[in-house]
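Researcher: Before we compare anything, I want clean individual predictions. No alignment, no superposition, just each chain on its own. First chain goes here; please echo the sequence and then give the structure tokens.
Model: Echoing the first chain and its structure:
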Amino acid sequence: MNAIQIEYSAMSRGYYQKIVVKDQMVSVTKSRGEESVTNKIDGAQWARIVSEFKKINLETIPKLKAPTEKRFHDGAAIANLKITQNGKTYETKGFDNGFPPTEIEKLVTLLVAFTQE
């Protein structure tokens, strides 16, 4: 997982969240203009992230279909997952925060858990 950065963001008019994972570190920003808080990811959590990451076909990420459409009428923040590996970026289309495409759901759940701490 060297040279890989995973970024999850969710935003709406009154909501902002950004999680960046790189080199067994996580940076969490919970509101616009706020400084991010960076922490080391413990071994067990890191192993789960690596395991879920390996299950994802990066080439299919831009084609994933959102399971819900609440973001179209302010029913959910617009979320996005972006993975950068070896200088190439793979990014999802927008999806509802809390309702990621099933192919990335477990990875997104692990990332969002860092905001609960």
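Researcher: Okay. Second chain, same rules.
Model: Second chain and its structure:
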Amino acid sequence: MEHVPPQNLARPMSADRPPLPSAGDEREVLTAHLDWHRATFEAKCAGLTAEQLSLRAVPPSTLSLHGLLRHLAGVERWWFRIRFAGEDLPLLYYSDDDPDQDFDDLAGDPARALARWREEVAHARRITAGSPLDALGADADRGGPTQLRVCLVKLVAEYARHNGHADLLRECVDGATGY
């Protein structure tokens, strides 16, 4: 195997982003990767104005960082609080009549959307910390109960997908790359 020069290795994104373990038990690896993706997404939103966060910078897509904040807050709530913990809560930024309101209706302050997202992440972390990975969620009405392990994997995949979108949006908004 050839040696890769240090200048060609990926640089750390920020001091705020948690390091990823190269070994560990399943819980440690899954939660570390999810927290890494959460921190990556938050870094992509940092330092922008409300107008920049709400900019739909990649036409014809309706995606914006503000919309992604709303969407990911709803995803956190859906998988951890509703599907797994069985909490009887309304869905965020969704209705049967307007299923895409997380992206389409950007009324409101993006700072409030960021605060809501952080609240949902905090709830998800508490739920995750208090349950074994093989625990089955309480929701049997939507295809049967879901294992916590599956919720974590689904969220890692969701964030990975949307961090790619956020990369493009942020670069279009202000030219910043390398988060």
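Researcher: What stands out in the second chain?
Model: The first helix runs from residue 26 to 45. Additionally, The CA atoms of residues 34 and 146 lie 18 Å apart.
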